[in-house]
């Protein structure tokens, strides 16, 4: 056995037997191994008891190195990854992981799920956007004269964010544009916005002067503005547009879809402080211009009619009146107006109630012009001819009401022609009763007095009358001379047109064509089936009203003017009718001539019994000259 010598404390070597190998200074090298083995056996025994027995819980022994229970999920994963990390550190790691997960999910939400929405919001915050107005179509009269058109203009706007000196810029704007500098200063100082209008649709030369000022934050857009070259002439028919180019009244409203076109869009990109980005027009969609239209109005005749009506109504010492001139063969309206007139070029000067032609939009009791409907019914039923006579007492009674003529007289024997000549209420009532009130009602429906005419003008009124089942005897009397029924002057014009035009009932209208497309408007007409002999007798009797009756002042030398006057009582709000005040009118045409024009003239709230026949005469004499109307006397 080999021996080894080890130094002792004294430095001298000593000896050790091989059998005592591993023992140094009283301790064997084998002892740690035995201790480890015991520990391993104890640990194995403990684990074995814990898994096998199942009747004892594994609890810490309170001694260092005692075993801990196994963990699952995220904790187990962390234990496996970092076995030497303390419990507190692991908790912090778990918290950090949770926070990181929240931020990750939020990032996914923002960049994937709602990215488009937030992108749009961000884009909106840095852009200014508005619609651009298309050039509105031109309105021409029947001879190609411009009634309404759009001209070049410039809209001036500002970005208040860019304005450096609102007071100074406001003063400069007022010096060129007019108005109060304080108003401009308020606009230029508007908070929380990058866009305000300074002046919409300014004259181009005026806008150019503003450009020369080179004001901070003030910009310009090419635009158009509506103009009406004829001012108030025809204004009610033409109508007007608002600043956005939308039709508000008249034909501008009626044909807004055709005239207006399609707006464009303008979107400009701005920087962080609202300043424009160079080349920052992101989108500019051109506006699509509207179409032109040609209408039946003759602006020259319209001027004549308006002047004659204004002067005539003044002579009648009233303020309201209406007139319509229409072609009986086609339904084309050459002129139409109502007092007071409207000027679409200067709406600030227009009066209340001037925005529409009341002869189209308001129904009224027509009075004696309606006697022609009753006379036509009588002729058709054959109960009386033009020269047949009947006794007409001074008054008649029905249902506790009395009916008399507008002027006192004794009982008279009148022919049907004379009943119209003298405009006898009693005579037409008795003659219509003899023909049958039900037949009169049938003609009211036949000539569509209770329906609108279909004219292409906004706000047309329809007539009305009681259903025949509700008629009393006095109702029949009243309706026969134009009371107890409401119609529009346009409806009366259409009826007289049927008499002048062989019984054909036309549709009154303004639109003739669309010049750009070449489209020609078509309008319906209806054959009423009235016998030609009856129509000839009607025209003959209406001619007598002018030559021998109440319509004498309407006559034109060398022409056969036919027509009927009216002096209609006005219903009172308190019931009954007003005293000594009337709506008066005349509706007629020139028979046997090259003209098919039918003209109505009315005046409202006229004191005493007077006529509008002189106004009719003034209008139609001018029409004779303007259209070179020739007479073709009947044989």
Shape: elongated
- What about the largest sheet? 7 strands, mixed
Summed over residues and divided by their number, the pLDDT gives a mean of 85
DSSP strand tally: 27
**Beta-strand residue fraction:** 15-25%
CATH topology of the domain at 299-627: Beta-lactamase
Oligomer: single chain
Rg over alpha carbons: 50 Å
Low-confidence stretches: 1-66
The CATH class of the domain at 299-627 is Alpha Beta
Task: Tell me the CATH architecture of the domain at 299-627.
Answer: 3-Layer(aba) Sandwich
Q: What is the percent of helical residues?
A: 25-40%
Biased composition (Low complexity): 37-70
Region (Disordered): 1-70
Organism: Adlercreutzia hattorii
InterPro entries: Beta-lactam/transpept, Beta-lactam/transpept-like, PBP_dimer, PBP_dimer_sf, PCN-bd_Tpept
In short:
With 635 residues, the chain is an alpha+beta fold. It is 35% helix and 24% strand.
Protein model, in words:
GO terms for molecular function: penicillin binding. Pfam families: PBP_dimer, Transpeptidase. This is Penicillin-binding protein. The chain crosses the membrane at residues 91-114. The chain is an alpha+beta fold. Among the domains are: 137-227, Alpha-Beta Complex (Penicillin-binding protein 2a (Domain 2)), CATH 3.90.1310; 299-627, Beta-lactamase (3-Layer(aba) Sandwich). It is 35% helix and 24% strand. The chain has 20 helices and 27 strands. Strands 6, 7, 8, 9, 12, 22 and 23 form a seven-stranded mixed β-sheet that branches. Strands 14-13-27-26-25 form a five-stranded antiparallel β-sheet, sandwiched between helices. Helix 11 runs antiparallel to helix 20 and helix 15 packs across helix 17. It is elongated.
């Amino acid at each position: 056995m080999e021996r080894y010598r080890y130094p002792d404390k004294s430095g001298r070597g000593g000896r050790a037997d091989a059998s005592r190998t591993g023992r140094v200074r009283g301790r064997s090298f084998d002892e740690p191994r035995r201790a480890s083995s015991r520990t391993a056996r104890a640990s194995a025994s403990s684990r074995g008891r814990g898994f096998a027995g199942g009747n004892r819980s594994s609890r810490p022994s309170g001694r260092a190195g005692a075993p801990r229970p196994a963990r699952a999920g995220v904790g187990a994963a962390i234990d496996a990854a970092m076995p030497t990390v303390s419990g507190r550190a692991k908790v912090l790691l778990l918290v950090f992981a949770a926070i990181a997960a929240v931020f990750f999910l939020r990032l996914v939400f923002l960049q994937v799920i709602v990215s488009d929405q937030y992108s749009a919001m961000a884009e909106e915050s840095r852009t200014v956007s508005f619609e651009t107005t298309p050039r509105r179509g031109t309105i021409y009269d029947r001879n190609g004269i411009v009634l309404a058109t759009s001209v070049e203009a410039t809209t001036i706007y500002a970005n208040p964010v860019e304005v450096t000196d609102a007071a100074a810029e406001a003063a400069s704007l007022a010096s060129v544009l007019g108005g109060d500098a304080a108003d401009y200063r308020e606009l230029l100082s508007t908070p929380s916005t990058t866009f305000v209008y300074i002046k919409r649709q300014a004259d181009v030369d005026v806008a150019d002067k503003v450009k020369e000022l080179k004001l901070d934050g003030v910009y310009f857009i090419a635009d158009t503005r509506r103009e009406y070259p004829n001012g108030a002439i025809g204004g009610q028919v033409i109508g007007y547009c608002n600043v956005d180019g939308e039709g508000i009244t008249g034909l501008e409203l009626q044909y807004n879809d055709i005239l207006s076109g399609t707006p464009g869009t303008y979107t400009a990109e701005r920087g962080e402080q609202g300043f424009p980005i160079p080349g920052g027009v992101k989108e500019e969609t051109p506006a699509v211009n509207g179409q032109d239209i040609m209408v039946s109005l003759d602006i020259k005749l319209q001027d004549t009619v308006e002047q004659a009506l204004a002067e005539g109504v003044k002579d009648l010492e009233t303020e309201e009146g209406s007139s319509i001139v229409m072609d009986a063969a086609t339904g084309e309206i050459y002129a139409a107006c109502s007092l007071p007139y409207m000027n679409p070029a200067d709406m600030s000067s227009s009066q209340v109630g001037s925005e529409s032609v009341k002869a189209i939009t308001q129904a009224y009791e027509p009075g004696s012009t309606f006697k022609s409907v009753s006379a036509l019914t009588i002729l058709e039923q054959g109960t009386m001819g033009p020269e047949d006579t009947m006794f007409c007492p001074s008054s008649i009674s029905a249902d506790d009401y009395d009916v008399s003529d507008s002027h006192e007289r004794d009982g008279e024997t009148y022919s049907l022609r004379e009943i119209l000549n003298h405009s006898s209420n009693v005579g037409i009532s008795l003659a219509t009763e003899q023909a049958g009130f039900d037949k009169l009602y049938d003609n009211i429906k036949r000539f569509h007095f209770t329906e609108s005419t279909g004219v292409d003008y906004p706000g047309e009124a329809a007539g009305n009358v009681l259903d025949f089942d509700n008629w009393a005897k006095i109702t029949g009397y009243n309706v026969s001379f134009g009371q107890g029924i409401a119609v529009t002057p346009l409806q009366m014009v259409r009826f007289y047109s049927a008499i002048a035009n062989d019984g054909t009932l036309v549709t009154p209208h303004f639109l003739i064509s669309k010049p750009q497309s070449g489209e020609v408007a078509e309008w319906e007409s209806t054959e009423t089936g009235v016998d030609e002999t009856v129509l000839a007798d009607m025209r003959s009797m209406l001619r007598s009203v002018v030559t021998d009756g109440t319509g004498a002042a309407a006559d034109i030398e060398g022409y056969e003017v036919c027509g009927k006057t009216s002096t209609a009582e006005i219903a009172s709000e308190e019931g009954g009718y007003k005293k000594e005040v009337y709506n008066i009118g005349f509706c007629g045409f020139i028979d046997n001539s090259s003209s098919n024009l039918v003209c109505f003239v009315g005046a409202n709230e006229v004191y005493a019994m007077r006529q509008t026949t002189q106004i009719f005469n003034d209008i139609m004499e001018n029409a004779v000259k303007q259209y070179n109307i020739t007479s073709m006397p009947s044989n």
